[in-house]
TrEMBL record:
It holds the Pfam family Oxidored-like. It comes from Paraburkholderia steynii. This is Oxidoreductase-like protein, N-terminal. Residues 1-29 are annotated as: Disordered. Residues 18-58 form the Oxidoreductase-like domain. The lineage of its organism: Bacteria, Pseudomonadati, Pseudomonadota, Betaproteobacteria, Burkholderiales. InterPro entries: Oxidoreductase-like_N (IPR019180), OXLD1 (IPR039251).
Length: 75
């Protein structure tokens, strides 16, 4: 276990909150003039970053699964 992993496992859940999804832009926020980047392009990039952050958060907060009848033995 690295020092970083030890810090995460000992930190309270409030110190590592679940990422929140980005807010989808309202249709009225797009000017329909072909901007580069469009507000929806920026939103798509935010969703990609959110999904990566959520996957990392879920991995940090995953609970080890124990075999039935074998305490301490993980799959």
């Amino acid at each position: 276990m690295t020092a970083d992993e030890a810090t995460h496992s000992e930190a309270p859940a409030t110190a590592d909150p679940r990422p929140t999804p980005p807010t989808r832009p309202d249709r009225s926020e797009c000017c329909d003039s072909g901007c580069d980047p469009c507000v929806f392009d920026l939103y798509a990039e935010e969703v990609t970053r959110y999904r990566a952050a959520l996957a990392a958060w879920e991995a940090r907060h995953a609970q080890p699964i124990e075999h039935e009848g074998e305490p301490g033995k993980k799959r």
